[in-house]
Amino acid sequence: QVQLVESGGSLAQAGGSLRLSCAASGRTFSSYAMGWFRQAPGKEREFVGAIRSGGNTYYADSVKGRFTISRDNAKNTVYLQMNSLKPEDTAVYYCAADLLGIATMLRGSYHYWGQGTQVTVSS
């Protein structure tokens, strides 16, 4: 069983920055791929980005160049640095763990999910 706890969600102004954290349980965190997804009201949950165990990162086109994913395996934590925020970034943000370490855009490939943290960007 892997538990994921997100934090760092808040209200921000357009153009501002936030950093989300996701703390994970589990002895083999370093081998997991970790993904970030988001879900806006009335919309499906969508892929934001992911990071493999080796540090390779992948991003959705909508956030590329603005968001950065990193991980600290010593702290069992993955981060999502969000810069140049836009009102359309408003959503609940979820982290997810892929125990196979693949890091895809597909929700179904992730085995565990956090409860989410709310990000609201005002114009």
Could you please describe the fold and organization of this structure?
The structure is a single chain. With 123 residues, the chain is an all-beta fold. Helix content is 0%, strand content 47%. Strands 2, 4, 5, 6, 9, 10 and 11 form a 7-stranded mixed sheet that branches. The chain is globular, with a radius of gyration of 13 Å. The model has no long low-confidence stretch (mean pLDDT 96).
Structure class: mainly beta
Compute the number of helices: 0
Shape: globular
Q: Give the DSSP E fraction (strand runs of 2 or more residues).
A: over 45%
SSE ordering = EEEEEEEEEEE
Termini distance?
A: 40 Å
- Low-confidence residue ranges: none
Largest sheet: 7 strands, mixed
Average pLDDT, rounded to a whole number, is 96
Rg (C-alpha, Å): 13 Å
Helical amount: under 10%
Instruction: Tell how many strands the DSSP assignment holds.
Output: 11
Give me some keywords for this one.
123 residues; mainly beta
Which helices and strands appear, and what pairs or packs with what?
Blueprint: E1 4-7, E2 11-13, E3 18-24, E4 33-39, E5 46-51, E6 57-59, E7 67-72, E8 77-82, E9 91-98, E10 112-113, E11 117-122
Parallel strand pairs: 2-11
Antiparallel strand pairs: 1-3, 3-8, 4-5, 4-9, 5-6, 7-8, 9-10, 9-11
Short description:
This protein has no helices and 11 strands. The chain is an all-beta fold. The mean pLDDT is about 95.
